[in-house]
Amino acid sequence: MKIAVPSKAFVNGAFCGLVIFSLLINLWGINWGLPSFNGWAADELTPIRVLEAVEQGFANGWHYKYPPFHFYILTVFYSPVLLLHKLGVVNVYSLPTYTFLFYIGRILSLILAAGILGIVYKLGQEIYDQQSAFFAAVIASLNLPFIYYAKTINLDIPYLFWFMLSLFFYIRILKAQKTRDYVLFAATAAIAVATKDQAYAFYILTSGFIVWQHYRYLQQRDPAVTLKTALKDRKILLSLGVGLALFLAIHNVIFNLNGFFAHVNDITSGGATISPRFERSLSGHLIMFWQSLRHIRVSFGWLLSGLCILGLLKAFWQRKHYYLLCLLIPIVSYYLFFVSIVMYNALRYLFPACLILAFFGGKLIGDFLNSSTQLFRVKVLTIIAVFIYTFFYTTSVNVLITHDSRYIVEQWMTKTFTSSDLILGAGDAKYLPRLEKFSSESLKRPTLETLKQKDPDYIIGTSAYDSRRFEANTSEYEFFSKLETEELGYDLVFQYKAKPQWDLLNHEELGYRHINRMYVYSNFDKINPEIKIYQKSSQ
User: Fold this and answer.
1) What is the C-alpha separation between 103 and 46, in angstroms, rounded?
2) 3-state secondary structure of 345
3) Tell me, what's the pLDDT at 224?
């Protein structure tokens, strides 16, 4: 006997509640590392990068390692503050105003994250039932990278918003073959790529699959149609033209052609290139694929990742849900034409795969609860238990952010340091306590020679940036290793790392590093780092 399916209004109401709940979860810790000129999130698009672009008018050779589209969006949201700056009312380079720009960018990520959940819910209804779509949205919201990047100005949430929106139109194309969906797919795909370059890889196989499906659609109406004829169809040419024109317009190639080529050079052969971390061999690809599965497991936790993988296997076994399986094509394309090209696999690189897996997990849970009334309460309690555990697991990142060790360290610094003390931050400023109010300098690659030149009163080190990053025979390794063993004439006077009780993350796994080798390639080891402060010996 089938159970009663909840009404559409009830599920819509539950989804609205989910979005509000997710917003609160993602809002938690949005002030991490602020006020500051740097913030503590690795690779965050700090306001100074946008201000530099605005000053150059996004032309005159301007470029950065990321494409310009989200810069434009941030500029629009910054514009009232920029106008006040121009009128002399505020100074955008003062810490309070600059921090306000930081909040604008982070809140924008928060809004786009809520938008992703909305797209997941609507897309789920396109490919299967409403209840399963709701569970897909729940799963997407309980994802470690989702919760973390929803409160930073990294480009992961923005580009995935546009990718997911393009995926919605992709499914609509497969279902109805309407010109409008072709054009909207091309436009949102172009914006996704113009937000973060790696998005190009989603669309290589996907575009070919769309053309093939269009060809099959035309053949059903006229068996004499050839593939060449299908390629010349108005829908294909119009969408291709719109996508290309929008891409070129966003990159401002007419007024900033040099900047466009400089950006391309930067990501292909310049400083923004990605160094491979796996061998370009069969064994290297297999190891990287295994690492991908590990990253998915870390992103969701054991229970929810297991359900998503089980849902994927079930979909393959049954082969009943055609549009659900079609969601795999962009992810396979992305893995083949980006991850397998750069041979570098980070936790956030598997973020889009997690969003797609959420649809398989949502369908599995929906079918599990709708199969029969037998043991229905047990089934419901089981799913609730999985979600509760995953909630505590993934929101551990919020706990670590709000208990970040650097807050306590900064209190100690304020009480201890004097105005005449010179402070040396050993490592990237983003991984250290905030040093703006002290006489200080941060060095990413300190050596014994630079130490001799600076002659600081205190040296601050962090577990997020220490000797484990460097080869044993390098000058940087010598500096950090001797600092840790107190062989530089500096004594350890303070050491702290917060240990909150509500923290289910495996920090041995997240924090392991040997030069470039890590168990989990992520930025989560840089949250709540162990901070050590060394003082110059009195002898």
Assistant:
1) 10
2) coil
3) 85
